[in-house]
TrEMBL record, chain A:
<feature type="transmembrane region" description="Helical">
    <location>
        <begin position="601"/>
        <end position="622"/>
    </location>
</feature>
<feature type="transmembrane region" description="Helical">
    <location>
        <begin position="185"/>
        <end position="212"/>
    </location>
</feature>
<comment type="function">
    <text>Functions as a zinc transporter.</text>
</comment>
<feature type="transmembrane region" description="Helical">
    <location>
        <begin position="55"/>
        <end position="73"/>
    </location>
</feature>
<feature type="transmembrane region" description="Helical">
    <location>
        <begin position="519"/>
        <end position="538"/>
    </location>
</feature>
<protein>
    <recommendedName>
        <fullName>Zinc transporter</fullName>
    </recommendedName>
</protein>
<dbReference type="InterPro" id="IPR027469">
    <property type="entry name" value="Cation_efflux_TMD_sf"/>
</dbReference>
<keyword id="KW-0968">Cytoplasmic vesicle</keyword>
<comment type="subunit">
    <text>Heterodimer with SLC30A6/ZNT6; form a functional zinc ion transmembrane transporter.</text>
</comment>
UniProtKB/TrEMBL annotation, chain B:
<keyword id="KW-0812">Transmembrane</keyword>
<feature type="region of interest" description="Disordered">
    <location>
        <begin position="167"/>
        <end position="229"/>
    </location>
</feature>
<feature type="compositionally biased region" description="Basic and acidic residues">
    <location>
        <begin position="213"/>
        <end position="226"/>
    </location>
</feature>
<dbReference type="GO" id="GO:0016020">
    <property type="term" value="C:membrane"/>
</dbReference>
<dbReference type="GO" id="GO:0016529">
    <property type="term" value="C:sarcoplasmic reticulum"/>
</dbReference>
<dbReference type="GO" id="GO:0005794">
    <property type="term" value="C:Golgi apparatus"/>
</dbReference>
<dbReference type="GO" id="GO:0005385">
    <property type="term" value="F:zinc ion transmembrane transporter activity"/>
</dbReference>
<dbReference type="Pfam" id="PF01545">
    <property type="entry name" value="Cation_efflux"/>
</dbReference>
<protein>
    <recommendedName>
        <fullName>Zinc transporter</fullName>
    </recommendedName>
</protein>
Amino acid sequence: MDDKYSSNVLSSGKLGRVEVPNARLTRYIVLLLVSKLLKALGIFESYDLLKVVHIVQFIFILKLGCAVILVFFQKPFSSGKVISKRQWIKLLKHAVISCIISLLGFFGLTLCGPLRTLLLFEHSDLVVIALLSVLFTSSGGGPSKTRGAALFIVAVICLLLFDNDDLMAKMAEHPEGHHDSALTHALYTAIAFLGVADHKGGVVLLVVSLCLKIGFHTASRKLSVEIGGAKRLYALDNLVSSVVLLPWVIVLSATTESKVESWSALILPFGMIIFSVMILEFYVESICVTKMEAPRCARYGAIFLFLSGLLLANFWTHPLTDQLRTMSKSSQQDSTETEHVLSGGVIVSAVFFIMADSILSSPSKKGQKGTLVGYSPEGTPLYNFMGDALQHTSQSLPHFIKESLKQILEEYDSRQIFYFLCLNLAFTFVELFYGVWTNSLGLISDGFHMLFDCSALVLGLFAALMTRWKATRIFSYGYGRVEILSGFINGLFLMVIAFFVFVESITRLVDPPNINTDMLTPVSVGGLLVNLVGICAFSHAHSHGAAKSSCSSHDHGHSHGHGHSEHNHGHSHGGHGHGGHGQSSHGHSHGGGMNANMRGVFLHVLADTLGSVGVIISTILIRQFGWLIADPICSLFISTLIFLSVIPLLTDAAEVLLLRTPPELEKDLNIALEKIEKVEGVLSYRDPHFWRHSASAVAGTIHLQLMSDVVEQRIIQQVTAILKDAGVNNVSVQVEKEAYFQHMSGLSTGFHEVLAMTQHMESMKYLKDGTCIM
Amino acid sequence: MLPLSIKDDEYKPAKFNLPGKISGWFRSILSDKTSRNLFFFLCLNLSFAFVELSYGIWSNSLGLISDSFHMFFDCTALLAGLAASVISRWRSNDSFSYGYVRAEVLAGFVNGLFLIFTAFFIFSEGVERALEPPHVNHDRLLPVSIAGLLVNLVGIFVFQHGGHGHSHGGDDDHGHSHSMFNGSASHGHSHGGHETKHGHGDGHGHSHGGHGHSHDDPHCHDELHTPGKGSSKQILQGVFLHIVADTLGSVGVIISALLMQKYDLMIADPICSICISILIGVSVVPLLRESIGILMQQTPPALDNALPECYQRVQQLQGVYNLQEPHFWTLCTDVYIGTLKLLIAPDADSKWILSQTHSIFTQAGVRQLYVQIEVAAM
């Protein structure tokens, strides 16, 4: 119900989620935090106690103490309605099951330590139900829930596989510490039969008992209504289960001898555990659930619990805390070595658990993606929710990847860039792995350089994708400019690289280092091959694309011979694809901008190939003739080449970004403006602004002064048509008639006060000026 | 009926007059406070770099030479800021109908990108060196880095002062050019001997001078006198944070130099440079985001709240049926331009609607508005 409610609030026009004011809730959250911290403390303490006390005895004492306190507080017998015989039987069943579950849980605790128990066992019902519904029903509640479930499972797997709890494995060899009863022995043999290590068995056990617990809680809800409240049920349940356990405990204490020296020393820890784990947590949880939304409560609780568990696990075995824990006897000191240590796997899985919990417990919200349609008469923006925006509550990750892959492969140029990127990345990774394998620092750093270069390719690809996005409310002209921006960024990037290569080659010219050429040739040949493949791929595209638009070719290959202390290596970069530029300058690309783009990439790759050929040549020269100077000269030459070739690209992109009137349209526009002046009824025009927004969009605005007796609409249409012919496809024409200015100047005195109030004196001046000019 | 644009050769000088041009540039640089500050700081930086270079050549220390080249590279950013502040004052002409005001934004963007690049390079080098700490000879590290810090401090002082000037200024006849300088975006990082192979091994500290991210906003059109206020505050704040981060960076270099000198903690250097690069990267992100937004013709965030209200008010005007294709974008800082189409009733008073619309959007802060009025078919 809460879920429904919050999504209703959400869709009713508020942008953020409506939450209860925090000030009022802070109290409860702090309470929750304290109770969870105490609970974690209690679990850790009970793990220590379970080393001494038999598990059944332990549970019996817990239940008994809890029952005594609860009976005292809740008075289940004196208050409420009388419990019938059938209900007593149900209660008995309930108690037996709860005993079994807590037995399993605490047994799991002995097996895998307190931290792992906290992580596995203490999920709230909400989380687990959401998880199970994702796993076993078709309509789990959207991709975000699926993601949460996946995280949860990954976390469990992390605990199972990557938790190198070596010390526990040793302990599994001789578990006589606590397998002195038939029950525990049976459990041990069951785990040993499964053929897993001890703590892994504990993990499995805990997961199973977690599921049991949740099922049990759900089933007991009906009973709690019958009995009259969850609190009463809890009290009675504790009482009955302590009665159920009593005979077993008597038999146990008669047959086996206890290891406990003095029960009196254990009273305090037991009291602590009973208070923190059984009572306080129960009450606080129930209060918080009523005061806050259940999902929120569950989320905060889980996060607090896990964090405090992590914290305690870190400090529990610390010598300082050992001193604090006076009740733990020195006899147990030796056992602290076999404590379950914090390993990387546990931390990772804790992080995953926290994420999974927060995802699974969050109420599913409605997707907010929609395209802007317009504004309602009240001024609120209206969105058009497409079908899938309503169906998907959030973007699913695999779905997203699939979609973007589809988009990439849809268009020819982005597909080419993508394939080439894949090739480049593969080459890089091979280089990296080989470098790691042979432990060659030179290869590794070369691989990283390649990765850095791939970022340009990624940028181009991303820009090619982003260009196709629809215009939104914020980006009202669409994302076409991304292409130009990415071209600009790539150009700058190349310039920086050229500069660095230049500087390095100069310093090396002064003092030519002795380059070890062993690694140079295979790497540069590999790079050359990759580039050749790129050329093949792109030349194919190139031959298809009508070569009508000339494109700025910029090219760079460069050799870094890093003077590493041991491994010198030449380094010929693979191709850098600069997607998304070129069309900026060559405006007569009516939809042919993509071709220009492809051409740019092609030329770029070609130049890279030439660069790596240069590296190979310089290598040969060095090897054959010992001309060490060949390398810096080569890179000097190459860097100059890059620098020169980037400049046209940069100027073109900068012109577009500076809102220049597109140069290739300039002539057409001048003719068009002359035509506009000749249109009947037009007095003059002012402020003609035309600028290229993206490859395909040219926007323009113009003010027209009309005679007072003409029809505005006709003129607007004529002017728009004229400008459309000239290539401007996003025009807005403001017509002004004589009367309008008189009107404006008449109004402006009234304006003045308004504007003075809003402190826009300057702009007021502008308006006045405007009227004066006109 | 006069042609409003003059296509004579009046704008172009008859012959290339270099001394005249240079003196003109000088005058225009010195006429404005912010560009003057930038210029002086650039001079300071350049002289520092030259001293470093000449000393490096004299003592034949490759480290110092390459460090001075790095400094020159950083000076290019400052130079870009200076050039932008000059260019942006150019008049609008035929092809640049809006003038060159966007040069400011572009310069900020370029500088931000440069900073990101530098941060990335420092980061990768820091990681590389953290894995395998080289032996850094820290003889010359400390004096150089302290000198760099001093230069940075001067930069901070100057530009903070400039910021003050911004808050004071505003009544000169140029309209009002307020500046948000990222002026002393100086970042210190230490490159310790990455040419150990040469047997050189002399580490050298290297604290970059400032990069001017000039965002100032001179008058763009004669008619676009801009009241500079409002959104500049966040930028100024960001810039100040940035400067502080950079100074902290060069302090970090000094600390790491000291650590290395006193305790031989070689790991201090890469850790310091990684921290510095992260600081730079984080501090640049807002600047980049903002300038990309402007360059992409984003609806200005400053208007984001005001616009729906304006639409509402326009639509409540008598005779307005609908409002279509609203495009609002930022020309340069605080100059917003908008176009929209209004669908009005055939019998409505279009002039009144036009003037009302203009007044509504002017109050929201839109300087230039183009309203295309379309009469709905009956």
